[in-house]
Amino acid sequence: MKKRVLTGITPSGTLHLGNYVGAVRPSVEQSRRDDVESFYFLSDLHALIKNHDPERLQRSRLQIAATWLAAGLDPERVTFYRQSDIPETPVLNWLLDCVCPKGLMNRAHAYKAKVEESEKAGEDPDARVSMGLFCYPILMAADILLFNADLVPVGKDQSQHLEMARDIAIRFNNLYAPKDRPFFHLPYGLIDEKQELLPGTDGRKMSKSYDNVIPLFEGGSAALAEMVKRIVTDDKKPGEPKDPDSSSLTLLYRSFSTNEEYQNFRHELEDGLGWGEAKEKLYRQIEAEIGPMRPKYDRFMNEPAVLEEILQEGAKKARRYATPFLEELIEAVGLQPFTRIKADTPATKKQQKKKKAAAFKQYRDPDGTFGFKLEDADGTVLLVSSGWASGAEAGRTVARLKKEGAAALASLPSVKRPEGVDEARVEAALSSFE
Ligand code: TRP
Hints:
mainly alpha; Rossmann fold; 3-stranded parallel β-sheet
């Protein structure tokens, strides 16, 4: 079965070459693989947490959607949509809010960092924390779980959010799903350790906060040429041998060339290529890749209606999965229409009774050791264990089985299932204690 890969792109500001090399280009490549099914969306509800300027938000959503499509994301192949066009997301968000312990959110790094900032500034610890920020990981869990994504490509800073999404999924599954048919898969982060970090014009990581970024599409080729000219180099003259690693120029060049071209470029610098000429070469190299995408970008920017239509199609495609799935979840929590209330069948009643009645019984063996057994409602013995040195030890094992369920059995060889007892029955009985 194809793996489902899903990721959100928060529209904040415009994208620069660092974003292109680090995120856009690899994601577009990934989306062309045949063994994955990709869901990419603009996490514009998340953007509201930081951005309270409607015009800026609007512009950023437009620019970022245009960028991804211009960079080659194929909306026929991937499901590309806006988070805000999926009404199922905020509903699921609420269902998850109601099963997520507040303590889990208290531990979120991003929230804790804000609290620390406030404390340092001598303010109330929550002065900089909106409920949106505090609950950010739950909305992200809703994004992921609504589509039952298996893999979520994210930056390292987001891996805690994936852990939280798994915790929340497990809680919801345990509370509401039949044991053998969990609603949610557990999603895992796809964290690219070797993700290229592109340096900016001054050699530090390319970042808006350092004001060293080279724009991707904004400002056209003129802006690109202008920023490439600003790359910092030493003052060696043309003809003087240069250290290729003394400027971020070389690393930038590498991200837009084959290894052979890159090695040649290094040698040319060592042989005295002037910095001015080197910059010209770098510019041409980048332009060769980005240039052909520009008309598409400009077209989307000038005709937002075209973009809108693509995104509406994307939302429709996404909702073909999300709408029926949310309906199932709504029913599971007990919010279905009255016409869909299931009659209490004798079978479900019996099952409920049985579940409640499974019990552990501890006892002392004639040889003085301690033991326990697990009995189902009808008295069937499901597990037996004897030979424990103390009652406390046997008790601890029982507690572990109650807490961890059947998963604990693998590491408890002395706990035996009598012949003829079905494994699933033991699992069901154990899960009734969780
Ligand atoms: N939090 C992510 C970021 O800032 C964006 C995001 C929102 C996301 N929802 C998501 C990423 C779901 C992956 C999956 O980069």
